Amino acid sequence: KRKEKEMRILMVGLDNSGKTTIVLKINGEDTSVISPTLGFNIKTITYQKYTLNIWDVGGQRTIRSYWRNYFEQTDGLVWVVDSSDLRRLDDCKMELDNLLKEERLSGASLLILANKQDLKGALTPDEIAKVLNLENMDKTRHWKIVGCSAYTGEGLLEGFDWLVQDIA
Ligand code: GDP
């Protein structure tokens, strides 16, 4: 058991997947006016009895190589997928695979959020799991995939509840 109830959570995923909107939604803030993440936002929120330090790292191609600067002492990883962006799923898989090779992230619990489930044409979490080949994940990794919508809030609590319990 951890002594302190602070957790460091890194949110990553391609740009436009919904990272910023998800953080706002779980924190009960207005999600109608946001701009794409450049660089990163660090947000400290209280979730249940935990303090979550959420690092929302921008996903645009030119800054993806900087993600690794934020890996130290990461307890949890949230990988956000735009389930409606079929064109970029290969790119998404490649970036996730690369991230999971990182030694410093090997102990981090992994929550995959199949976001934008409110959109027609969004792939289901099962379909996303197949494309990302999650069944073949390293056996030591704790992971879960949950469908969600940052707009309606559906799935977010289920996902974050699992993550904080898994880390705690
Ligand atoms: P980020 O670049 O990963 O931080 O993504 P943003 O949070 O900036 O979201 C990118 C775009 O997707 C914005 O226009 C959001 O309003 C939109 N968006 C985010 N989450 C959802 C969702 O669950 N459903 C829908 N329909 N749009 C979403």
Automatic annotation (TrEMBL):
Entry GO CC: cytoplasm; microtubule cytoskeleton
UniProt keyword Transmembrane helix, yes or no: no
InterPro entries per the UniProt record, alphabetical: Arl2 (IPR045873), ARL2/3 (IPR044612), P-loop_NTPase (IPR027417), Small_GTP-bd (IPR005225), Small_GTPase_ARF/SAR (IPR006689)
Taxonomic superkingdom: Eukaryota
GO MF, any single term: GTPase activity
NCBIfam families: small_GTP
Record protein name field: ADP-ribosylation factor-like protein 2
